[in-house]
Structures are given as C-alpha cells and as structure tokens.
C-alpha cells in the first residue's frame, strides 16, 4: 500500500504543478494579448507613472475702478526651494545642487530674514533623509521680484524658484471692505467677501492643464508627448468707484481717525443723477496685502444699521411738503412735546429749553425735535407718514450689488415710536438706505437704486459681457417737493440759525444738507451711551444745492473731542475736503464765487522742446512742474498738449535722462500719479505724505523700476470753526 502511494504522489504533484504553470502562463498570455490587469491598461499605467501632469491656473480677473485703474489684480511672487540631491548634478563644474551648505545659509539668512542655523538645519536634514529638495518655511514664500533678483545675484548652486500667483491690491487701504478679500484653497484663489466674493465665479475662470513624459530626474523626454489645454481666464470687473474720489475720502478718513480716535466711521459718495457709488469707506479698516489684526470685518455702510439722528428730518420735511401741510412761516412752541396717546415727553436738543415760539422753518434749521414730531404726528398723521416712509423704502433693503447688506428696523407700533422716528430715534437704518432715499431729494423726486458694479468684461477679448444702468425704483415725492426740500436744507447751511452754518460751507459750491447727532446702545450695559463723546455724529449733504451732482453721508462714532470742539469737527473735515475736491475733479461748475479765483490754463506742446524752455513756459502759466531727470530734452509729460487744468494740479515732466526726484512731502495721490506716469512698481507702507523713499534723490531711474515709499500723517491738522451745533 505504501509503495503504491509513494509511486502515485509524484504523478499528483506533477499534475498540480502543470495546472499551476498553465494558469500562470495563460495569465501572462492574456495580459500580453489584452494589455490590461483587473481592467487597468498596463500601457496607460506605465504612461501615467512616467507622465507629469500639472494644472495651468486661469488668471483671476482684475477689479478696476470706473476709469480702468486696477484695484485688485493677480500678482506674481516667488517660492524658493533648494535641491540637495547630489545625483542631480551631472557635471561637477556646474553643480545643480547645494554644494556649500554653510555659505548658502549665511548668504540667504539676511535676505529671508531667517536665522542662519535654521537654514543650515533644513538643508542638512534634507541631505540626511535623502530628500531631493527642501524649502525654508513661510519666509521663503511670496518673495517679490527684488528679493528674487538679490538671491539670483548670489549665484549659489541648487537654489530655484517657483512662480505663484497671489491677489494684490495696489492701493493698500483703499475701499477694502468694498473690494473684499481672497483666500487660497487647493492652490486656487477664492473670493471670500466684498466684490471678490460676490463676483468670484466670474473672476475665477477655468483652469487648463499640461502633461508630458519625463525621466527619473523629472526632466522632459526628447519626445515628451506634451499635451496642453489652455485655461479660460476670469472676467474683469469694472466698478463705479472713482480712484481719485476714493483716495480723497481715504486720506480724510485716515486723518480724522488719527486725530480723534473714533470707534467707528463710515462715509459714502454717490452720483445723485445715476445712483453710482463713487467712493465708500469705513474705519476701522485693514490693508488686504497685510491683514494683521482686523478690527472690523463689516462694511458698515451697508451692513450696520444705526439710529440716523436728525438726518432723518430730511425725509420728515419732504413728507410734510409732499402732503401739503408744510407752512414755513407757521409758528409753534419749541422746547418739549407730548403726543396724544404717548407717555413720553420729548424735548429739543438744547436741554429741552427750545427757543420759544418759532417758525417751522427755523425749527428745521435749528434741528428741533419738537418741530419734526409735530409735523409727523399732527400735520401729516401717523398713517400717512408711515406710507411716506415706506415710499422711501425705509422698510426694505436697497438691493445694492454688494454681499452682506442688512436691513434696518422701522419701529412704528406705538405713538411714542411714531413720533421718535420723525427725528431719527428708535428706528434704525443703514447709511446706504439714507443715501438711496436722498436720491429722490436730489433727483426731482425719482429714487434711484444704488449700485457699484459698472460692467463685466472678457479678460482676453475686452468684450463687454454685462453692463449696469441707472434704475429708477420709485418716486416717493414730486419734483416740486424735491426742489422745495433742497431750498430748505440749503438754509440749514446758510442761515445763522442753522446747525450747519459755518461748518459745512464749501468755498465754491452751495450745499443742502442736514446734521445729525444720534444715540447708540452701549454693548456692555444695554442702555444708551452717555457722556459728551457718546454719540454718532453725522451729516447728509448734497451739492451744488440747487441741482445736486453728488450726495455724501459721513458718520463718526465716539470721537475724542477737545473741550472747545463740537461733534461736527471730524464730520465736517471729511465732508468738506472730499465734496469740494471731488466736485472740482469732476469738472462740476462752481455755483458761487470762489474765495480764490482759479486760473485755468492749457498744457503747451512739448514735442522737441528743451527742458529749460518748456519748464519756463509752464511757470509763466502759473504751473510749477515736477521735473524728473536732468536731461536737456523733454521725453514726455503726464498730460497731453491742450489739456485744460488749474494751476493747482500736478504736472510731471520727464527728461531724456531720468533720475529720481525727491518725493518728500508728496501726497499719496501724487505718488499714484507718478507711478502711473512711468509705469513704476510702487509699494508703500502707511498713509498721508511721503517721508522716505527706497531710491535716493538723483539716482538713475528707469520706467518700470521698483520703488518703496513710507508715508506718515502730519502732526495735527486744523479744523474748521463750528457754531450752533446740536448738543
């Protein structure tokens, strides 16, 4: 039995091994013929293993102001890395890896602002762990062109750069809450708020791709079978913001912030005829290029409702005129007032004393709470007044094309609330709601929808994809009512009894407007804040008064006032500086005699002129130009021949041998004009006026050069004299 088993086993094992061989051979034969394993193509897998594939990011669209000035754009920065694998060097005479770690660390330390030992440790760690390359952390990322060139000049082997796009905001602290911010998610720039967030899909575009075959050292093969799918770049977005008007606003806001240290500030400038937002700003703000600690993420102009204070009397007045109950000569008893059915006695802002028996016109000029309350409750009537407030859309959002708009609360249930809303207490509204309602006052009764996106444009073809137009969204009052309202509001500024007299006057333009002093609830106590500085001071103004071109709202919360100052000091400083200069910049004809006549001249022809002769011509015209360079011939001028300008405007004359001018004490807008004139790559820190520049005066200068400037606010600034301000 044992003998038979012994003889049989080799036969069994032979059969088993034969079957296994046939199975394996069959499998190999199948793979050879079919070219796949478990449904996976062997050829495709091999190609994939030796093929590099990269995404080609689409260029994110640029955000421009109304005149084509870039406000947010893609900017190339560089990421440094070092190759530490010796095998990458094929010719010892020209090494391609880091050969001298000590020298490399020593040279890079100061440029990257890193500790030399830290750099050495990273390089040595890469060598010890058989890594092909290493990086140096955050300090080696987002390097600018100047840093890259400085490192390249060291001629250290093994150092290489990767280009990376980031979002760059050329103007720094400039409409930051409006333009918005971006973040990087999976190496893609994504908008997270403001216009960047709202228009993210349009701005982003569609990424492309590139693939090619490579060797073990990641180098392309001679026949790399390269496939390129071009990206579709994002669309460009043009805003209604005007860079010059916005810069005027930012400069004024920064000066007030520096001097008065308010807890909040808001301001907005709008075209009265179209509803286009020309400028919008908030404080605290932030620099999107260098966030640091952000004190306020909200665009308060659209997102933070507040009690409007006496600026609300503009619409109480308009309602009274529209309903035919306004009699400017009729008298009433000022001081205190208690509406029928109300348990609350309201008083005028001068400690409830009032001014005796005065006319309703004087009551509006003096910003009498009693005048507004009696007009709303007794003359117009609670039911009709509510209808008029709703006609001004105080019960709904404006629909402005910005994310995060909030709606205020029209509180109108009880007689005390129906009275208090007439003079701006109890109910809350956003500044943009007030601005929208004011367009009806400034535009013959037609109320316009505010908007900030002018158009979107194809980044590559420049074809206009969509275009916004002015939109009339209601007519709460007649054209006659609007004009009468403007006439009364002008007396708030011109009358000696007006709360805006000698405070909001402009040199060359008449103003119609209304001051405001509003309470706010203290977040800690839940009660109205008390104290001399515990208010929101504001002004809603339009100019020229007879037919307004611009509307502006400014509010300043909790400014630190001197004993001799009223709350209008910081508000009027912003309003007067921005409104006066904006109207002049927009070539709006003055409607009153200027205190100083402004001479208008034309830029003379400069082609072929000598520098000396041309500068003499300009000085004869009353223009003191900034001459760039010491060449004998004029190379170009920042204004075309025949351009009309005032002697107060800045003229740059570039000679045929450019040298750096002394920029000390230049205003920020002059820095921007200089940058645009010579296509310079300008970066800056701070705001106000230039104190330092990276290129010394008289040094050689070329178009496109990089220049860094530091700006500071001047120490102290004079404020206009105030009288008759609301307490």
Automatic annotation (TrEMBL):
Entry's EC annotation: 3.4.16.4
Listed SUPFAM superfamilies: beta-lactamase/transpeptidase-like, Penicillin binding protein dimerisation domain, Penicillin-binding protein 2x (pbp-2x), c-terminal domain
Enzyme class: hydrolase
InterPro entries the record matches: Beta-lactam/transpept (IPR050515), Beta-lactam/transpept-like (IPR012338), PASTA_dom (IPR005543), PBP_dimer (IPR005311), PBP_dimer_sf (IPR036138), PCN-bd_Tpept (IPR001460)
Alphabetized Pfam families for the sequence: PASTA, PBP_dimer, Transpeptidase
PASTA domain span: 596-655, 656-713
Keywords assigned: Membrane, Transmembrane, Transmembrane helix
Superkingdom of the source species: Bacteria
Membrane-spanning parts: 12-30
Pathway it works in: Cell wall biogenesis; peptidoglycan biosynthesis
Catalysis: reaction(s): Preferential cleavage: (Ac)2-L-Lys-D-Ala-|-D-Ala. Also transpeptidation of peptidyl-alanyl moieties that are N-acyl substituents of D-alanine
Family per similarity comment: Belongs to the transpeptidase family.
Protein name as it appears in the record: serine-type D-Ala-D-Ala carboxypeptidase
Species of origin: Gracilibacillus salinarum
């Amino acid at each position: 039995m044992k003998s038979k088993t012994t003889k049989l086993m080799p036969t069994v094992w032979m059969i088993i091994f034969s079957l296994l061989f046939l199975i394996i051979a069959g499998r190999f034969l199948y793979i050879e013929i079919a070219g796949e394993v478990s449904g996976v193509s062997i050829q495709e897998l091999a190609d994939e293993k030796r093929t590099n594939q990269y995404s080609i990011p689409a260029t994110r669209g640029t955000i421009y102001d109304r005149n084509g000035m870039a406000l947010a754009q893609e900017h190339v920065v560089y990421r440094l890395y070092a190759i530490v694998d010796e095998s990458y060097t094929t010719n010892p005479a020209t090494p391609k890896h880091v050969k001298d770690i000590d020298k490399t660390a020593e040279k890079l330390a100061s440029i990257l602002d890193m500790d030399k030992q830290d750099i050495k440790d990273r390089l040595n760690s890469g060598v010890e762990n058989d890594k092909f390359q290493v990086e140096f952390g955050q300090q080696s990322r987002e390097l600018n062109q100047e840093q890259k060139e400085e490192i390249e000049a060291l001629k250290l082997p093994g150092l290489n750069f990767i280009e990376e796009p980031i979002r760059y905001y050329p103007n720094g602290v400039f409409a930051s809450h409006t333009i918005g911010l971006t973040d990087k998610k999976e190496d893609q720039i994504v908008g997270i708020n403001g216009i960047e967030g709202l228009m993210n899909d349009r701005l982003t575009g569609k990424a492309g791709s590139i693939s090619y075959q490579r060797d073990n050292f990641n180098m392309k093969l001679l026949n790399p079978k390269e496939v390129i799918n071009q990206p579709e770049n994002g669309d460009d977005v043009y805003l209604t913001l005007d860079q010059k008007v916005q810069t005027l606003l930012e400069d004024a806001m920064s000066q007030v912030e520096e001097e008065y240290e308010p807890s909040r500030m808001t301001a907005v400038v709008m075209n009265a005829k179209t509803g286009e937002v020309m400028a919008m700003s908030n404080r605290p703000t932030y620099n999107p290029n260098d966030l640091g600690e952000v004190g306020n993420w909200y665009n308060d102009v659209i997102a933070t409702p507040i009690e409007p204070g006496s600026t609300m009397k503009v619409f109480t007045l308009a309602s009274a005129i529209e309903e035919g109950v306004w009699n400017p000569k009729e008298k009433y008893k000022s001081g205190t007032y208690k509406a029928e059915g109300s348990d609350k006695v309201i008083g005028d802002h001068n400690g409830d004393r009032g001014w005796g028996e005065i006319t309703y016109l004087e009551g509006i000029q003096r910003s009498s709470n009693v005048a507004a309350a009696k007009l709303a409750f007794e003359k117009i009537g609670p039911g009709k007044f509510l209808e008029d407030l709703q006609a001004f859309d105080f019960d709904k959002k404006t629909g402005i094309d910005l994310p995060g708009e909030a709606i205020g609360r029209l509180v109108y249930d009880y007689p005390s609330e129906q009275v208090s809303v007439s003079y701006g207490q109890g109910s809350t509204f956003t500044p943009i709601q007030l601005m929208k309602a004011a367009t009806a006052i400034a535009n013959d009764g037609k109320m316009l929808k505010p908007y900030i996106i002018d158009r979107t444009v194809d980044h590559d073809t420049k074809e206009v994809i969509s275009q916004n137009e002015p939109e009339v969204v209601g007519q709460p009052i007649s054209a006659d009512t609007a004009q009468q309202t403007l006439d009364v509001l002008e007396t708030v500024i011109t009358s000696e009894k007006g709360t805006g007299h000698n405070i909001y006057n402009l040199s060359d333009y008449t103003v119609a407007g209304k001051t405001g002093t509003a309470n706010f609830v203290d977040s800690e106590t839940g009660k109205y804040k008390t104290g001399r500085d515990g208010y929101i001071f504001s002004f809603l103004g339009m100019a020229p008064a007879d037919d307004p071109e611009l509307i502006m709202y400014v509010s300043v919360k909790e400014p630190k006032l001197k004993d001799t100052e009223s709350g209008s000091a910081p508000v009027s400083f912003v309003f007067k500086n921005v409104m006066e200069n904006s109207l002049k910049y927009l070539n709006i004809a003055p409607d009153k005699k200027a205190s100083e006549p402004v001479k208008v001249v034309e830029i003379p022809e400069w082609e072929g002129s000598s520098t000396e002769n041309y500068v003499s011509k300009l000085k004869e015209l009353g223009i003191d130009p900034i001459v760039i360079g010491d060449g004998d011939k004029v190379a170009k001028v920042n204004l075309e021949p025949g351009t009309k300008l005032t002697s107060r405007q800045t003229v740059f004359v570039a000679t045929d041998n450019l040298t750096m001018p002394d920029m000390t004490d230049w205003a920020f807008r002059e820095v921007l004009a200089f940058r645009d004139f010579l296509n310079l790559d300008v970066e800056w820190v701070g705001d106000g006026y230039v104190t330092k520049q990276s290129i010394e005066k008289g040094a050689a200068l070329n178009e496109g050069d990089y220049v860094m400037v530091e700006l500071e606010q001047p120490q102290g600034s004079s404020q206009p004299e105030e009288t008759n301000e609301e307490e």
